[in-house]
Write a structure and sequence with these properties.
The complex is a heterotetramer of chains A (about 550), B (about 100), C (about 750) and D (about 550). Chain B contains three helices and no strands. Chain B is mostly helical and about 100 residues long. In chain B, helix 1 packs antiparallel against helix 2. Chain D has a domain of about 250 residues. In chain D, helix 5 runs antiparallel to helix 10, helix 10 runs antiparallel to helix 13 and helix 11 runs parallel beside helix 18. Chain D is globular and about 90 Å long. The chains are: A mainly alpha (about 550), B mainly alpha (about 100), C mainly alpha (about 750), D mainly alpha (about 550). At the A-C interface, helix 13, helix 15, helix 16, helix 17 and helix 18 of A face strand 1, helix 7, helix 8, helix 10 and helix 29 of C.
Chain lengths: ~550, ~100, ~750, ~550
């Protein structure tokens, strides 16, 4: 195999992670003990190296890629053809473009941070390698251009996350881990059927699929005209894919695994779950469902809007009714993910770029939120909103991070989330007019629940020098965040602001990509199919 | 010479009796006997076929099938004994530690 | 109480800032190039103060030499002020390259393409950039903002750092303070509606943080949340308005939009209906930010913040953001310059909202006893004046009464200036009062710090302070005069213009305008009453509490800003009026011109138009004569025997005792008074509606999610388990049953095979 | 035509090795210094059978070592044959091709693993003492028990070799009767093996039930075969195939005959509703034997089913086989039943038994897809490839799971899930291997269980996805127009999702619960190596070159079957 950079990025964490877990079992006892002690340092080193590589790729030191020049359909840093199971058309094919690269970079950023935040995790000699494996699996999803491999990595992410929840989770972790695994797996097997139907319709390419005559090559699939001739089947496959992706995102009504998983997961797990794993759904939806079935996407725009609206609006309302901090943050993820569907539904380059940026921005912000919630759990042993008051006095750093994260998440300008929100909503107005009031007004609800939760935890103790502490502390002195939590949150906070003030760092490539995406794929489809548009003229008629 | 169809008919009856007997009786020995009946109904068919087609293979099949039946009974009795030594019953109804 | 301390040496580190402009000039910078420093320096100082403060908290050097960050903040604001002044002078007297409206772009924020309705991608990418836009209005508000930020920061070093409750927390205050300043400067300088909105939101955040500065106070936390959420409602509408604008013009840059607002991005004429909605939504945002009816409820509560915050954010600067936004609507409606006709209703709506708010706020201010609350309602009322004026201006612009429009517009903007200066000062003065009363109270009750029954902000605990606090009383007097509109003093020039133009519109052109016209005229008189009432209650009469006798004006850093602003309020308004600032602000003429003393006076008091003259004199009568006299009858009175005020104010004190005394106990017990005490039940009603709709609905949603959506999943789960048990029961353990099942299966196979084929 | 010289024994090397193994095993323990006096003389000639045994052969481990050597040899011989593609006919009743050799490989590998597992499961005592008169009754009976125990070694491994012999020959036979006889040889031996679990009192019961139900099923099968004989007069598979394809209407003899044989083979593979005795048998048998039943025995059943359904009654292209609906329905019922029953099973062996039932359902669904007659030759080959692939790798992870249970069985903890509790803490490597097996059973990528499931679903999609109306414009019209086979794919994936619950529960117990018994598991070094090897191959065969080559082998096998 040609050692190309994306392959290294994907496989090195998995292999080293596995090694770090397995080696102590095989080595003699003394060596094993020594190895266990430095395992987390090694893991961190590798994670940082991966981040360095990703950053160098971005700057152009590695691969010499001009990211803003990448159009849709072009992939850079591709590897040489290497077939894994050539008789059924599976090959190791990796590549990056503006859709996947921000996610790749984000993953490589979040991994060391989540390791750092849980630097003193119990049984760290397994914990940190597991996160490394997680990194490899996540990166694999984003880099692979072969649907088989894509699916393999897609499911592979479940296993380390399952173990993370199971071994380091909260009280009800058994239920949560099972629910998480089974729920998302169930959804993704529907997606698998969709993939297989697509596979069935591919035309052979030489050297691949000697046994079946088909292949899993995503690039070739998207190049093939009219991959599935039957329109009904096309829509059916689109829906099957949507089931898989929407559950991962997650979109209402298939979202209930998320709060449970988040509440029970360890902090690092939550961070990765919210930061990257949810994005896999949106990424896959754009990469596969929308790219290959543009016409179905356009026909189902009302469905997308419904799902997006349901997630966004309903999710926000549910958030308001939560009493558990982490649950609330989890539902807020549901709510924000709704915006991605809305962005895609606009069928505007701006909207799609906004959705991409939303994926990225939420990937920076939500880990911060979960790190904060995790710190609450860690230091105050409770997540009940209202069980404590005025802890800003005891934990100024924690409160500061909470404030920053909460504000970023409610869409305050100069923070990453705002850019995406504005872009999506502008595009939404252009496509659907007054319907935009619904998501816009939801922003008020978002602000309400965030502020209320903040007010009821870090404010309002009635005494400047003493907070009202939760019973779960049992009279212990409350602590502020540890240095590693603090550092992790700081880094996330700084990135939140950097990408809020200078969004063009990643925006430009997303924008160029979306434009080309629209030109190449969507416009033809839009000319063939009636594009849905809401009849909202009556509002202005009424007021005339 | 008897028409082979009569033999087949007898075979069907025997098979029916055997099959009914297998789930009618509790005693494992009786069930074993019923199984013998079913095997023998097959033997009758082989015989009938051999007669009808004038094919010597049928006779051979019958002979081998009888041997199989014998082996089956031998093994069966051994297993039943083994069960009897632990559970002190050979009633298929009562031997139900393993269930659900 | 110790000696009056001077701490000027602490400012020495800041002296190099004076060299900033010369250095930059030497380096070849234009003033407009340096504009970004106005924003970025505070932005950089914000984390600096926060981090250093967090690290060196409780450090003595940090506390005493750096005032817990106050000096740093002051330095940042000094830089901003210096550069703002540089830009101002450059604009007024500089080279020709600095034209009427100047703009510069720093960097491209986001770039993107568009899909047009004919399914083609727009040829050129659109850009949302970041830059500077400078014209007269910008300059005026930038000056106001930088100047007041600087002064109030100065004031804070006295007010905040001497209060033990703030100890070790002040770095947070100063950090948020400079962040706020950054937001304000940015908003004023922004060259597009989007960036205006962005900085607008930053200000909202800082307002939230600063109102909740005393985070442990339940009322403060509540007020902070209320302020943020209420303005957020407006902001959301504003945002939608921006989307519509974007849709119309394909950009949000002032340069692009104002170039020709009548044609949209497609080249077609702009649909006035759509534009109307856009501007109306923008106005909703302004209503929220500037605390106008019906989104006014947050402002009085916002007084929970430290007094400098009230002075800066909730009186002088942030609340002006809404006005600034409405002022930016002028090019849309100015049919003289490519405006879009058919937007008259917008002006009427704005004027109406303004009128209603002005009247309502003034009414409520009648009964407030908290000195800051009075000022808060007064702020609301005065802002409403400006809204009315702007509404009238917009109406005039749109109906092609160019000259009247310019006067209304200029007067409104001028009122903004006057009000900001006066109100900033009033708040600082009230802060001074509160601070000293509080100190005095602590001084008396040293043993018992926790005496919560004493409210240092309650005017019923004051009285007769004129003798104790000469500087403060003077400042407050001039500030109140400016707000009331006492002839020749600041606010008079602008307020009179607004009222006159509103009446002009009402009488001569648009009957509906009579409503705001009457309302603001009445408000003028009411303003006279409640401002005088406040002053008299605080400074005149006998001390109502023992504490007053122990009050001294002794805190450093407090007097200087008061003095400066007193001068500006007393003379500055008149001076600017002489320079015909009203026309300057409405972009009628390029530079300030001296109009002449007599001309100005004549124009103000004896306008040629009979109606205007009548209205003008009625205003003067109501606000200057009737209102204050009634107030004096109720609350005025001589000072306590043996105490004496300085000459500048003693005349007023003694005058206040000359009109006799009126007992208002019956009125204050009336139902109407009670309604006013309860702020006309707006807050209660909102609270009630929210508690009956929003919260139950949220709980319902949570319940629905838990029991229905997740319940289905749980049902599937439990049903699977129970059916699993059922299935397992079929395996009875009896070999007979197994055989039976096999036989049944066998037979069903045959039935299936033969039944199907 | 038939002469002995035609029979090329080189094609039967694996089987010959097994026969030699049986003989060896009978002989070796009996070698002794016995002499026989030549009649009429006084010279005694040593015959080496009987008498006082030599100490070298007195080692009670000998039978298991012989069995291991035998199976290893025949495994490698099969492998060599597979590599060399040694094919040919033996007489008219047997044929050796890639298919049969591959299955020999499957059977021998499963048996090899059984032998390795039992090597530790029934440890004989070295140097047993012979009871003396002076012994008390109890000590004498203890000594006798040890002797008997050692004695059983031989019985056990002979039966094991018999099973191997029967299975290998069965897969090679082209004559239905021979097929059945070999099947009986294997089955009867396996009944005894199930009952061999003497450590617990349930062995006998399990053996009895399995034997009774199995015998009824075989009796039904033999009766069905006799009907086929009546119909055709010849039980050569070729002859049956040609008669079947020329048959105009479905002959009742033929139809009923095939149907009855399906019952017999359905019992072997554990298809509902003939599967009811399987969970009992699995839970009653010792774990290695249960593993054998779940892998080799099931593979044997599927070979038979494939020979009957896919060769004799193979549907013509475009014509639905007459058994299609029946098999489709059975497959759906089987997988659903299996999964639902496994959902709450508390006995790990029962759980695995039900999971094995569910897997049978998936495979039957694939067979049903062929029966639909929608696919062409290529797609049928693809489905059979998937089946063969699945049966092959099942030996790895299904048997692997049973091997782990074998390790636990020494502690007597396999009757409920408690034994698995806290396994990670006691023995992390084994626990991780077990987790891998479970995930592979559930079909989680990148493990081999996923690849096989994917191939089966793909086979089904392959034949059915093209059937929907091309002109359908909406989802509903397409859904109503598509062939029912397509929904089999959906039922498979939904069932896999359900199955995940109980597979993961094992993980949950291992990772989460406190162990019931502390301390590491028994050492059993070869067993451990086998388990780890199984786990590694489960991983390697999921994706990459190794799975590619196995797929190619399976594909060749499938082609040689059709």
């Amino acid at each position: 195999m040609n050692l190309d950079i994306l392959t290294i990025l994907t496989l090195v964490p998995i292999i080293t992670g596995l090694m770090l877990i397995i080696l102590p079992q095989l080595l003699p006892k003394e060596m094993a003990t020594n190895l266990k002690i430095i395992t987390r340092n090694i893991s961190m080193g590798i994670a940082l190296a991966m981040f360095a590589i990703a950053t160098m790729m971005f700057i152009g030191t590695i691969g010499n890629v001009e990211w803003t020049d990448i159009l849709h359909g072009e992939y850079v840093l591709k590897n040489e053809q290497f077939s894994l199971i050539s008789s059924i058309g599976v090959q190791w094919k990796v590549g990056a473009d503006a859709l996947s690269f921000p996610m790749i970079w984000l993953t490589s950023l979040l991994i060391p941070i989540s390791m750092l935040v849980e630097w003193d995790a119990k049984r760290g000699h397994i914990f940190h390698p597991l996160i490394l494996i997680m990194e490899g699996a996540l990166l694999g999803v984003f880099v692979s251009l072969d649907l088989f491999i894509f699916y393999v990595f897609w499911e592979l992410t479940l296993i380390p996350m399952f173990l993370l929840i199971l071994l380091w989770g909260g009280e009800d972790r058994k239920y949560a881990a099972m629910k998480f695994f089974i729920y998302t797996f169930t959804a993704s097997v529907f997606m698998l059927i969709g993939i297989l139907v697509m596979y069935f319709h591919t035309t052979p390419i030489p050297g691949l699929g000697s046994m079946t005559g088909h292949h899993f090559d995503l690039v070739q699939m998207s190049l093939q005209d009219n991959l599935i001739p039957s329109e009904g089947l096309r829509h059916f496959v689109w829906i099957l894919l949507l089931i898989g992706f929407a559950t991962k995102m997650p979109s209402v009504p298939v979202h209930t695994w998320l709060p449970d998983a988040h509440v029970q997961a360890p902090t690092a797990g939550s961070m990765l779950l919210a930061g990257v794993m949810l994005k896999m759904g949106a990424y896959g939806f754009l990469r596969i469902a929308v790219t290959i079935f543009p016409e179905s996407t356009i026909i189902f725009i009302p469905l997308l809007i419904f799902l997006g609206m349901a997630s966004l609006v309903y999710g926000a309302w549910v958030c308001m009714g939560q009493t558990n901090l982490k649950r609330m943050v989890a539902y807020s993820s549901v709510s924000h993910m709704g915006l991605i569907f809305l962005g895609i539904a606009t069928m505007q380059p701006l909207g799609i770029a906004g959705a991409l940026f939303m994926m990225f921005a939420h990937g920076v912000i939500s880990p911060l939120l979960f790190a904060v919630a995790g710190a609450f759990k860690h230091h105050y042993h409770t997540l009940e909103i209202g069980s404590m008051r005025g802890i800003a006095h005891h934990s100024p750093y924690l409160s500061g991070h909470m404030m920053l994260g909460w504000m970023a998440s409610l869409g305050l300008p100069l923070m990453a989330g705002f850019v995406a929100e504005v872009a999506i909503l502008i595009a939404f107005w252009m496509s659907f007019g007054w319907l935009v009031m619904l998501p816009a007004l939801t922003l008020i609800i978002t602000a309400t629940y965030y502020l209320t939760s903040m007010q009821r935890t870090i404010f309002e103790s009635n005494d400047p020098n003493q907070g009202i502490l939760p019973d779960t502390l049992h009279g212990e002195n409350p602590r502020d965040v540890t240095w590693h939590e603090n550092t992790g949150m700081f880094i996330l906070g700084i990135f939140t602001i950097i990408f809020g003030i200078f969004p063009f760092i990643f925006w430009d490539m997303m924008s160029v990509w979306s434009t080309q995406f629209m030109t190449d794929i969507m416009i033809d489809a839009m000319e063939n199919v009636n594009v849905w548009s809401p009849s909202m003229d009556w509002i202005s008629e009424v007021f005339k | 010479m008897i028409d082979p169809s009569w033999i087949v008919g007898l075979g069907v009856i025997l098979f029916g009796i055997g099959l009914l007997g297998t789930f009618y009786h509790k005693n494992a020995i009786v069930v074993l006997m019923c199984i013998e009946l079913m095997l023998n109904s097959a033997n009758l068919n082989f015989v009938a076929g051999a007669m009808y087609y004038g094919d010597v293979n049928g006779w051979v099949f019958t002979a081998i099938a009888i041997a199989i039946a014998a082996a089956e009974v031998a093994i069966g009795l051994a297993i039943l004994l083994s069960m009897y030594s632990t559970q002190e019953t050979i009633s298929l109804e009562d031997a139900n530690i393993l269930r659900n | 109480m110790g000696e009056m301390k001077h701490e000027y040496p602490l400012l020495y580190p800041l002296l190099p800032i004076l060299l900033l402009v010369p250095i930059l000039k030497l380096a070849g910078w234009e003033s407009i190039d340096a504009a970004f420093l106005v924003v970025t320096i505070p932005l950089l100082i914000f984390p600096t103060i926060l981090i250093i403060g967090q690290i060196y908290n409780k450090n003595q050097v940090w506390k005493n030499k750096w005032k817990e960050g106050g000096i740093l903040a002051l330095g940042a604001l000094a830089v901003s002020l210096t550069i703002a002044l540089w830009i101002l002078f450059d604009y007024l007297y500089g080279d020709s390259h600095f034209s009427n409206q100047s703009t510069i772009t720093w960097f491209e924020w986001i770039t993107f393409d568009f899909l047009q309705s004919d399914y083609t991608i727009s040829q050129e990418s659109r850009i949302i950039g970041v830059g500077v836009w400078i014209d007269q209005v910008t300059l005026m508000i930038l000056f106001v903002a930088t100047f007041l930020c600087f002064l109030i920061c100065w004031f804070s070093m006295g007010y905040m750092n001497t209060d033990p409750i703030n100890e070790d927390r002040n770095h947070r205050f100063y950090a948020e303070f400079v962040l706020f300043s950054m937001g304000m400067f940015g908003m004023v300088l922004a060259d597009s509606f989007l960036w205006l909105f962005i900085f607008w939101e930053i200000m909202g955040l800082c307002s939230y943080l600063l109102i909740g500065f005393y985070y442990w106070k339940v009322s403060a936390a509540y007020a902070a949340k209320k302020a943020f959420l209420t303005t957020r409602i407006g902001d959301v509408f504003l945002m939608v308005g921006l989307f519509i604008l974007y849709d119309i013009y394909g950009s949000l840059d002032f340069e692009v939009i104002f170039d020709d607002p009548s044609t949209g991005v497609t080249g077609a004429l702009v649909d006035s209906n759509q534009l109307f909605w856009a501007l109306l939504l923008l106005f909703v945002g302004a209503v929220g930010k500037s605390a106008q009816f019906p989104l006014h409820v947050w402002l009085p509560d916002a007084m929970e913040g430290p007094t400098p915050v009230s002075a800066l954010i909730h009186a002088a600067t942030m609340v002006n953001a809404g006005l600034y936004l409405v002022a930016r609507m002028v090019p849309f409606v100015d049919i003289h310059h490519h405006g879009v006709p058919g937007l008259e209703n917008l002006g009427i709506i704005i004027a109406l909202i303004g009128g209603i708010t002005a009247f309502m706020a003034a009414l409520i201010a009648f009964v407030q006893n908290d000195i800051k609350k009075v000022l808060a309602y007064s702020t609301m009322s005065q802002l409403a004046y400006i809204f009315t004026g702007l509404g009238v201006a917009l109406w005039f612009y749109n109906t092609d009464h160019h000259h009247a429009a310019m006067i209304a517009f200029g007067a409104s903007m001028f009122h903004l200036f006057n009000h900001a200066m006066a109100k900033g000062m009033l708040f600082m003065a009230s802060g001074s009062v509160i601070h000293e009363v509080h100190h005095a109270h602590d001084h008396i009750h040293q043993d018992n710090h926790q005496d919560h029954n004493f409210d240092p902000q309650d005017m019923r605990n004051m009285g007769g302070l004129a003798a104790k606090m000469p500087i403060t009383a003077t400042a407050m007097m001039f500030g109140s005069m400016s707000i009331i509109g006492v002839p020749l003093i600041g606010g008079f020039w602008s307020k009179e213009g607004i009222i006159a133009e509103t009446w002009k519109a009402a009488i001569e052109y648009e009957p509906i305008m009579i409503i705001p016209a009457i309302l603001i005229l009445a408000t003028a008189g009411m303003t006279g009453f409640y401002m005088s009432r406040m002053w008299f209650m605080t400074f005149a009469g006998e001390p109502k509490n023992d504490v007053v006798n122990h009050v001294h004006e002794a805190t450093p850093w407090i007097r200087e800003p008061l003095l400066i602003l007193t001068v500006i309020t007393a003379i500055g308004g008149f001076g600017l009026a002489l320079f015909d600032i009203i026309h300057f602000l409405s972009a009628d003429i390029d530079h300030l011109k001296m109009h002449g003393f007599v001309y100005t006076l004549e124009h103000a008091f004896l306008p040629s138009d009979m109606n205007t003259r009548l209205v003008g004199w009625t205003t003067i009568l109501l606000s200057f004569i009737i209102g204050p006299i009634i107030a004096a009858r109720i609350h005025g009175g001589k000072l306590k025997e043996g105490t004496k005020a300085i000459a500048l104010i003693s005349w007023l004190v003694s005058l206040s005792g000359k009109f006799g005394h009126q007992n208002v106990e019956n009125i204050s017990k009336s139902q109407f008074s009670e309604a006013l005490q309860n702020r006309l039940y707006f807050d209660d009603a909102y609270e009630y509606v929210i508690s009956k709709t929003v919260i139950p609905f949220a709980n319902l949603s949570a319940w629905f999610d838990r029991t229905i959506i997740d319940g289905i999943i749980k049902q599937v789960e439990s049903k699977s388990v129970s059916s699993s048990l059922q299935v397992r029961k079929i395996t009875t353990g009896s070999a007979r049953d197994y055989i039976l099942m096999a036989a049944v299966g066998m037979i069903s196979i045959f039935i299936l095979i033969w039944g199907v084929s | 035509m038939n002469s002995l010289s035609d029979i090329s024994l080189e094609l039967l090397i694996p089987e010959s090795i097994m026969i030699i193994g049986i003989l060896t095993m009978i002989l070796i323990p009996n070698l002794g210094d016995a002499k026989i006096r030549i009649p009429l003389t006084n010279t005694s000639v040593p015959v080496f059978i009987g008498g006082t045994r030599f100490t070298q052969v007195n080692n009670p481990f000998i039978p298991s070592i012989v069995a291991i050597i035998t199976f290893t040899l025949s495994f490698f011989m099969s492998l060599i044959m597979l590599q060399g593609a040694k094919n040919g006919e033996i007489g008219q009743i047997m044929e050796v091709n890639q298919f049969t050799t591959l299955f020999s490989l499957i059977f021998t590998s499963a048996l090899l693993m059984t032998s390795i597992a039992t090597f530790y499961r029934m440890p004989p005592k070295q140097n047993p003492e012979i009871p003396q008169d002076k012994d008390t009754e109890s000590s004498a009976s203890a000594k006798i028990r040890i002797l008997m125990n050692n004695r059983r070694q031989v019985d056990f491994y002979i039966l094991l070799l018999m099973v191997g012999l029967g299975m290998c020959l069965m897969s090679k036979s082209t004559h239905l009767f021979l097929l059945f006889v070999c099947l009986e040889l294997a089955s009867l031996s396996s009944y005894v093996l199930v009952g061999f679990y003497k450590e617990s009192d349930i062995g006998g019961e399990a053996g009895t039930k399995y034997f009774i139900v199995g015998s009824v099923a075989s009796a039904i099968g033999i009766y069905g075969m006799s009907l086929l004989y009546l119909w055709n007069g010849n039980l050569q598979i070729d002859s049956l195939t040609s008669s079947w394809s020329t048959m105009e209407n479905l002959d009742p003899f033929a139809g009923i005959g095939v149907g009855l044989m399906l019952v017999a083979f359905g019992f072997k593979v554990g298809a509902a509703p003939f599967h009811l005795a399987t969970p009992d048998a699995y839970s009653g048998a010792s774990s290695p034997i249960a593993g054998l039943l779940a892998t080799a025995s099931k593979a044997m059943g599927f070979v038979a089913i494939m020979k009957i359904l896919l060769i004799i009654t193979s549907p013509e292209e475009g014509v639905e086989a007459y058994w299609f609906i029946a098999i489709a329905l059975i497959s759906v019922i089987t997988m659903t039943w299996g999964n639902f029953a496994a959902l709450t099973s508390v006995n790990p062996k029962r759980m695995l038994a039900y999971s094995s039932v569910a897997h049978a359902g998936y495979m039957l669904a694939a067979i049903a897809a062929i029966g639909s007659g929608l696919g062409d030759y290529n797609s049928n080959v693809l489905i059979i490839t998937a089946l063969i692939f699945h049966l092959t790798i099942l030996v790895l992870f299904k048997f692997g799971a049973f091997l782990v249970l074998t390790l636990l069985e020494n502690e007597g903890l396999t009757h409920n899930m408690d034994g698995l509790k806290g396994l990670t803490r006691r023995d992390p490597v084994i626990a991780i291997s077990m987790f891998i097996f479970m995930l592979s059973l559930a079909g989680i990528p990148p493990l081999s269980g996923f690849l096989s499931k994917l191939l089966m679903i793909n086979g089904i999609v392959n034949v059915s996805a093209g059937t929907g109306s091309v002109s359908s414009a909406t989802v509903l019209t397409w859904m109503t127009s598509v062939n029912v086979v397509f929904w089999l794919a959906l039922s498979i994936v939904i069932n896999s999702a359900i199955s995940l619950f109980y597979y993961l529960r094992v993980g949950l117990l291992m990772f989460f619960e406190e162990p019931v018994v502390e301390g590491p598991l028994a050492k059993s070094i070869y067993l451990r190596i086998t388990i780890i090897a199984c786990a590694i191959f489960t991983l390697l065969l999921g994706i990459g070159p190794l799975s590619e080559s196995l797929l190619e082998i399976a594909n060749e096998a499938a082609q040689s079957l059709l």
